[in-house]
């Protein structure tokens, strides 16, 4: 690939453009908002000027509802030899393209499974897709040349290609992406009018659950409007669990011992099913989740503290598998939770204590 065009210079489009330009591809940028395209160009994502002739690949990074019309127009103008989109929904745009009579032999639907809470070109990074799955949903009509271009794009962005059926993809993202976004927003919405004394008690658990609730509502309206059925199907199952859990909790308030036992069984069931589902979430590098030991260290809120504890772990010969920070509300301190292989935990604990770190259980 020598040339590409990116239509839509938001987070995903600009990030793809940055990755391509960093690897020597000439990228032409356009957006319905010319200022966004100029901003992306100023960041080094390409040039905000049209190509003089057909480019190798056009990357359509617009909301799902606009994908088909944008590709059809680009095909009529002869913009590129191949076309892909990066929308979060795949079945609808493909059917819209068919209805418009677009050339499906030049098109492959794709979806990079990566993003951030922030949107727009200023949030873009060239490494956004590194190590992340990038779904491709080729139709039987798709030409091999276009598939190769799509695979080359994925490789240049250092992502991991995953081939799926378009409708299967939409059901999958409804489960693992779209429904979690709504649930996170619903939990966060409970905080909007909560008493200040309650909000001040927020800990790491509520931060984890509500992190993605900070996402841009307009972007998610576009995505959910394009995939309402599969999301509603997943939410219906969640609603059933919620109803049963509410009943179980009410039963725990009963004076009847049998009802209380039923309540305990209901709560235990949903918690155990949650354990079983959580185990299936892929761990480091996409492998099966590993059982790590946590080493908790109290650190002050000063520059260099994290670097120092990481350096001490490295000096002890311990590889850090994962890390989390639990902030102490209203305090100039926090707890760093360092995840390591079980056999490394006592080694790290002893080494950090020797260096004067305050350890926590």
TrEMBL record:
SUPFAM superfamilies: 6-phosphogluconate dehydrogenase C-terminal domain-like (SSF48179), ACT-like (SSF55021), NAD(P)-binding Rossmann-fold domains (SSF51735)
PROSITE patterns to which the protein is assigned, alphabetical: ACT, PDH_ADH
Gene3D superfamilies: 6-phosphogluconate dehydrogenase C-terminal like domain, NAD(P)-binding Rossmann-like Domain
Sequence ranges assigned to domain Prephenate/arogenate dehydrogenase in this UniProt record: 2-282
Catalytic activity, reaction form: prephenate + NAD(+) = 3-(4-hydroxyphenyl)pyruvate + CO2 + NADH
Annotated EC: 1.3.1.12
UniProt keyword annotations, A-Z: Amino-acid biosynthesis, Aromatic amino acid biosynthesis, NAD, Oxidoreductase, Tyrosine biosynthesis
Database matches in InterPro entries: 6-PGluconate_DH-like_C_sf, ACT-like_dom_sf, ACT_dom, NAD(P)-bd_dom_sf, PDH_C, PDH_N, Preph/Arog_dehydrog, Prephen_DH
Gene Ontology MF terms in the entry: prephenate dehydrogenase (NAD+) activity
Claim: Transmembrane helix is one of the keywords in the record: no
Domain of life: Bacteria
Pathway noted in the entry: Amino-acid biosynthesis; L-tyrosine biosynthesis; (4-hydroxyphenyl)pyruvate from prephenate (NAD(+) route): step 1/1
Keyword NAD: yes
Every ACT domain range: 294-361
Family membership noted in the UniProt record: Belongs to the prephenate/arogenate dehydrogenase family.
Alphabetical list of PANTHER family matching this protein: PREPHENATE DEHYDROGENASE, PREPHENATE DEHYDROGENASE [NADP(+)]
NCBIfam families to which the protein is assigned, alphabetical: PRK06545.2-1, PRK06545.2-3, PRK06545.2-4
Listed name of the protein: Prephenate dehydrogenase
